[in-house]
Amino acid sequence: MYKHEEELCFLSIKEASALIRDKDLSPLELTKAFLNRIESYDQYLHSYVTVLKESAIKSATAAEKDIRQGNYKGPLHGIPIAAKDLYSTEGIRTTAHSRVMADNTPTFDSTVIQRLNSAGAVMLGKLAMSEFALGRGDEKELFPSARNPWNLEHLPGSSSSGSGSATSAGLCMASLGSDTGGSIRGPASFCNITGIKPSLGLVSNHGVVPLAWTLDTCGPMARSAEDAGMMLQAIAGKDGNDPATKNAPSDNYDLEHMDDLRGLTIGVPRDFFFENQRDLEPKVSARVNQGIKTLENLGAQIREVHIPSLKYTVANTVIMLSEAYSFHEENLRTRPQDYGPVRRQFLLGGLLRSSDYVQAQRARKAISLELSKVMDEVDILITPSFPFTAPRFDDRDQARYGAGFRFLAPFNLSGLPAMSVPCGFDENGLPIGMQIVGNFWEERKVLSIGHIYQQNTDWHTKRPSLDFPDLK
Amino acid sequence: MQNSDGTLLDIDGFYHLVKQANFNISDEEINKLYKAYLPLQKQVSLLHQMDLGDLPTSTTFLPNKTKNDTQ
Question: How far apart are CA A461 and CA A285, in angstroms?
């Protein structure tokens, strides 16, 4: 039925899993299509640091056999995915994209990887990232930086750069990222995919190389809200190995059936996200406003909300750098040569005072309380995911790029679920993301609203051409 | 990471701070670190000026304040 690899590789998880379940699509054929595609395109994209060709074929063969024998495990059975290279994988090198961990081969799987394996997913490989999930990628790191499939000269976002690039380019059906200050949603925005940072504590961090313990959040990146929900279903929930998940609900992330959005109230914090933001590109503002209009046309009520404490979002940076320094302190002293430019950021964390850290935690509490009050009055918030589209690799204005994360980090501080969905392109053909933020544990609502938005727009269906000049 | 009066460290003060921290980095690297320090520290200073209102963690009840100051 599907003759071309590209058609196979751009099926949604929902489409592919229905075909696999009904034995109309072979998991092995599907996996081989992805492996071929990786071989063709990843020499340009550098989205993978490790391709697990043999084990992927073995897993896909096993899935095919299981399903043929009537042992269908569920919607991820036989679905080819990939993981950011900070998820521990038993017997497979896990480097966090750093020379510091170049020889690290874990003897166990992280909880999330275990759960995906149990669901029957096929692991295609480990994905590039910014070193230790900080910074924007640099040529001095262990592996080449992942490239943006929409334009190789531009960043794919950070830190889940390979996850954004590979998922967008059809080099995996979905991927795992992690988000400490926006690292799922930023790459999702830059690469025209859907990425959700779940509520803090919904997904286990066990076996995941940390950046900042009190902020790190694992989550899925996919090509639609519906697919992201299917991934989340497999990985979410309590884990005895991660006490932070002790309050995680046993929920299901099947999308709520919605014909429209009547009865829903959408809050828009215009003063922080739209007004007097010098770096907010007009096209980004216009596309996100158009997205809000689309939701309004579906029946949602739009209400402007004010969250003054958002101006203290630097608290996220202070907490992140302080906690990161405490993790890296010894290696920074004993193996400085093994770090790339991210080392400077970690050292800054070592210069912050305890009173800075405590004040940042106080600010975090204040921002969380203020957001909590606002979320009592609205169902979701809508904001731009990032003030501008993907910068060029040779644009070294680190301060501008770093400042862009202020649109994402408030929801790391508060722990609220937040998702980036595609909402258009700028004049250079670079993707723009719209952020949907929900109340604690309300991933289902966030995903469902994202889904109805995607049913009424086609931005998320756009694919990069991958028309590289010297592609054979 | 700043002077005791809350002002930003100059390069000399920063140099001494880094030496005290025993980071074992070159003078050239200290200069680069200082460039990254300045914008961050400006924002951190603003963070310390945040009005925490009646949060339990507020410093409203510092012992050197009178009862009237806290109202």
Answer: 21
